[in-house]
Amino acid sequence: MVVLSALAAQLSFSSHLRLQATATVGQGAQALYMARAGVEKAISDLVTKRDGAQPAANYLESESVPYANVPLGEGTWTLLAGYGETSRPLFGIMDESAKINLLTADASLLGQVPGLTPQLAAEIVQWRPAGQLRSLNDLLLVEGIDVQLLYGEDVNGNGLLDPNEDDGEESWPPDNADGRLDQGLAAYLTLWSAARNVTSEGKKRANLASASADDLMKAIPGLKSEEADSIVAQRGKKAFASIADLLDVPLAAKGSQAPQSPPKSGETGADQPQSAAPPANSAAAKPAEQPSSSQNQQEPAQMIIDQNRLREIADYVSLTGDETLKGLVNINTASAQVLACLPGMSEETAAAAVRWRDRQKDGFKSVADLLDVEGMTVDRFKMVCPYVSARSDVFSVHSFGVVQNGEVCRCVEAVMDRTGNAVRIVQRRELD
Fold this sequence. Notes:
seven-stranded antiparallel β-sheet, 11 helices, alpha+beta, 432 residues, two-stranded parallel ribbon
């Protein structure tokens, strides 16, 4: 009887453990599906907010759009978007264009990222042609980059300040127990940033590098024929490096766009409009009577576009016909630290840009709004303009599913790309 009782007790205990394990697995699966539901909600919102200005507030929790502890069945899901300046958690969808793109940035730009030396930046650039960089984890293959440099205190990469990441030296990883999550290089770098090359209304932009004068007038609201002719004439002299070069387009002489007589040998033909005004001794360039000496003095060129006009048309033009622009930093979502890495942006100007967008209802409507930022000069704007955008189409989430009053939690990390006709998940990880 004693032996039978012992066997019965052991069988009962083993059965209890199996039932408990089964319940834990079931709750874990339930929490995982909660986390996946959060990802699906993010995809739905990204489709809804596809066009229009995209200030950072559009992707964070509000009274009308909850992202924290959203009830679903017997659990909840939460989209964690990091932590604010006061270590207060932020909830919502993260913009990948708020970071520096590892696949497009040159070594000088990467060398400005906090934690990256010029030598490490050069090593990263050398890895790119071989296609070795497919995720941030691949940076661990670069000599000199370890897990603590890459992820800081967030060694599991879930974006959450876990207890073992805020206890000093009590457990691994080492941290400073200051209640703030240091995410290392991962806070500044991405491989996915991209934006559609369209206006806020979703229309195709005019390509300054190739569009005809007629096409420019169709695409740019209010553009006059002489202004369109001047843009075409200017690019014949010098290619546009950015849309900021529109500030340097002089008003072309009448007739320079479409000459009345056939071009002479060596001159530009009708399929490639003239890029300069007629010679000073031609009949088209001077009146019938002999000019006075004061008329011979060259007057300052009249520019067709000033800063105010550039703000109005900046969203309608581009330097390429590509459907997608990769690697641009979104000035509506990037932190001051990321903005300060860009050419022409000092730490003071970057901080001023963040303050400026926070005061606006819709943030930066186009990159030309940077001209309104304190400390931003035209020369600085020309330097930073090729590196920035006012919108984005690739985002990421850390979605947490929770059941049993927080006893069981699962996390899904997903990167979502909406540059095509549908939102697709380009990278996903499921974490315990």
